[in-house]
Write a structure and sequence with these properties.
Residues 598-699 form the RAMA domain. By secondary structure, this protein is of the alpha+beta class. It is built from 30 helices and 15 strands. The protein has a six-stranded mixed sheet, sandwiched between helices. A five-stranded antiparallel sheet has the order 14-13-12-11-15. Strands 5-6 form a two-stranded antiparallel sheet.
Amino acid sequence: MAISAKELPLGKVFTPDFRFTIPSFQRAYIWKTENILQLVSDLDDACKSPGTPYFLGSLILVREGDNRYDVIDGQQRLVSLSIIIAVLRDLERDPDLMRQLDALLVEPGDKLRGIVTEPRLTLRERDAAFFREHVQEDNLESVFDMNDDDLATAAQRNIVANIRKTYDEISNWSDAGRQQFAQYLVNEVTLVIVTTDDLDGAHRIFDVMNMRGLPLTSSDVFKARATAGLSTAELDVYAARWDDIIDPIGDDPHDCEEFFAYLHLVLTHKPATDKLIEDFLADVLQPYIDKGTVPTFINQVLAPYAMAWRIIARPSDTVLPAEVRSRLEGLDDYRSHEWKPVAMWALVNSYRGLGDADLSPFVVRASRIARTTATLESLGAHDERRLLEILTALEQVTGIRTLNRAGTLERRGYANAAIRDLDKGYLVQRVNGLHVSDGDREGALVRLHGEMQGDGDLVRLLLIRANEQKAGMQLDRPRRFSALPIMPLDIERSKSFADWPQDQHDFWMYRLGNMALVQGPEDQLDRLSEYPARRDRMLLRADSRRFPLTNQLKDFADCTPALLEARQEESVRLIVEYWGIRYDKDARDLTKQNVDELSKTSPRPSHSSRRVTIRQVIDAGLLVPGERLVWDRPRKGERWFATVTENGRLRLDDGSEYPTPTAAARAAAGGRRGGGLDVWKRTRNGQKLSDIWKQFRLQAQ
């Protein structure tokens, strides 16, 4: 395999000496606006120093004859440079410079010399015509009139977004500034051109690039390996088919990796390792390569599972039944994603036609691109009742395991077990990974009745479930909404809570009964200490009042312990009814059981983030009323003191008192600090409050 390398300026690269083609097995154009704007900025800075070359890296090419080359590495830069040149050409007013810039993108041709007019760079087949028409052939204006429905691929969406951002940036420059930039681009920006004449060597280079940690996605590697053994006739067809399947997933490397990791789990039932590429190649792809059945893998495995992945991401846009869409939307509420492989399996095994290239389960809106929306019948729908049973059970166990703080490995193990049993044809009720034990139920009840401090996302999710159960339907949610406390954190100066003992306030502060869903940001009640003002702000917007448990606050003039207790019991009851865990195997109503008794029999979580109060630490003898705490900031020359009070608070030297170390730290520093346990120390021995709190937590276990 002969390799040659030479450094050339762009003015020598975009010439008849090179015709660049992006082969079909290559990835799509994935640069985002921040990538191309960074390149523009770097080049603009460099051009301020004329005579100083700017090295832009290397191109790795495979010679295909005469001046034609396949691009193995460098597509992202070549496309981005073409976009920059096209924008410069579009903004240029000098006809001669316009023609010269145009000649960098398209060979003008010469009939006398037998040179035909053609673009310097040809993208993959699916994007080539679009790029030529809207970028290389001086037609940027058409781009500004496009929306996402007019664009067939993720690459085209990236191209359009980058054109717009680059145009907006460069159009702000002066004519002289743009011309200076263009001259520098052509004469001083250089690339090292590495060429080989061996296609097999190109695939080896491709693999080496990945081993060196260059930013290839897992899909890039799998596609290159899968198509390497195909015949020339098959290569273009199935490389394009692969792109048709994977491109709509998007070009986020994390999403792509997650999809293939879960596909590996579905197909092999093997536990995950940190070697996805090696595992997927060996366990999934290699058997198809060895048998010469890669097209079967692409059409019958990759295509339906990738479509299932897309459905999971956008269920509301599909033609699937409303109940199925609703369950998938509910599952998407969870931060953990270990439910996804089970849902993928369920969808693929419920709709035989998910891999059909001519059908789409998504509702197609007005677009310049022709698509056919499938019907449930054309998708080969069968046993949708079982699909709904699986999704219902999956949402139930996902919610309960989230509540009971199951770890990632544990959740993945459950998913693996569920798919294994589903593959065996077990009834949903007998599938191990979808089973809820009495211990799970009791643990969920204990957690629901406990404090929820520091887990705002979980509180919001639980309240969504409770409100939808009370409403008897799925609720439209505001674009931005928060779970906010009915009581303020500090009731010292609040008339509304003057009769509340501090211990009672502390008990309810972080429980579900004190929380309500409200449209808007989390800090909207921070300056309101009176209940009527907080209630009225919560009910101000109609989007907040659509939540029944929030709207019912209008009926209460005062916030009392009885009100919060009633809200607590109702919220817990609604949640356990939603998940169907109100009764254990002996038909015992768990909502009627004493929580303390349940906590003795239910599995304890592996760790607890339950809030520890100053009062609890005093009662345990770990803090003494009257002792002094200090917070030093020597670099800023600042020092604050706080005194532990009899009623379980911290008093600053100005006489103000605060219920938590964090609140005291925030007040002392004028709102600039939040980690109170880490900053306050005992004056007598320098011990941090965080160490004292850890000691209490260990004793309480």
